[in-house]
Amino acid sequence: MAMDDHKLRVFCTVAETKSFSKASSIIHLTQPAVSLQIQALEELYETKLFDRSSSNVTLTPAGELLYKYAKQILGLYAEAEKEIGDLTGLVKGSIALGASTTIANYFLPKVIADFRKTRPRIKIHLQVGNTKRIVDLLKAGNIDLGLVEGDVSKQRIEVEKLIDDELCLIVPTQHTWAKRRDVSIFELTKEPFIFREEGSGTRQVIEKYFAKHGITTQNMKISMVLGSTEAIKHAVESGMGVSILSRWAALKEVKFGTLKLLSFREEKMMRDFSLVSQKHSVSSHAVEEFLGYLKNYPYEKLLPESE
Predict the structure, then answer these.
(1) N or C: which end of the chain has fewer CB within 10 A?
(2) Which regions of the chain are under pLDDT 70?
(3) How far apart are CA 243 and CA 156, in angstroms?
(4) Shortest CA distance to 136 belongs to which of 276, 255, 273, 41?
(5) Residue 226: what are its φ and ψ, rounded to 5°?
(6) Structural domains of the chain in order of their starting residue, each with its CATH number
């Protein structure tokens, strides 16, 4: 990337988030640094690009014009990089990838490791956050591609389903249900239950499923609310309650026999793992290769055989 496009990226991020503070957290620059980059552009064009008088930051007419060209310029950089890659036949470069927590921790590591064996020259930079943050990073152009779980609003982005993810009940191996294959969702209300914190993708799916069967969190005996999947697994292993997690998140524990996974009798609790990308953006050669790899990967091989 050329040196000057950095200022344009910062400018576009401020324009899209309508906020210096949001832009600075997305680009990992301090707020004064973001302001300086914008100031430098304003000095270059000798005009104000943003109107800062109201509570949110809006583009001036000159800013609107620059934004239109900045998007085209950044698009041209990406095209140049792609075509030079095609010409030299070297698949190298780097991919900025964003993934939500379950996917980043339990699903992607093996897939990325296998990809690196086939394309050792491609670097992958992974950013982890909840689904909403990944979508924000994508809209601001800070990642090329995102992998998220659960529902995503399709505003200004492409969403494509990658695979199904089943959410299962996890119980410790000494639990009375451990010998069973499935339980009824209504039996759950009698057991101490460990919940994820508000705003987690997993929790949204669970609440939606409960609601569909007329169960509210008030009906549940919630024993703890924990902020991470690892904490939940430890709590369940030590007999503090049962919980619901992605099948992917418990692969290791199932393999070592410390946790058991059960499905729900009424219907399986499912959600999608989806790929999100910017609409009409030009993907680099490296991103195209990785996308193709993701779409053709034999994911079922990674999951243990169902009994």
Answers:
(1) C
(2) 1-4, 88-92, 199, 305-307
(3) 35
(4) 276
(5) -120, 150
(6) 5-86 (1.10.10.10), 89-163+272-302 (3.40.190.10), 166-270 (3.40.190.10)
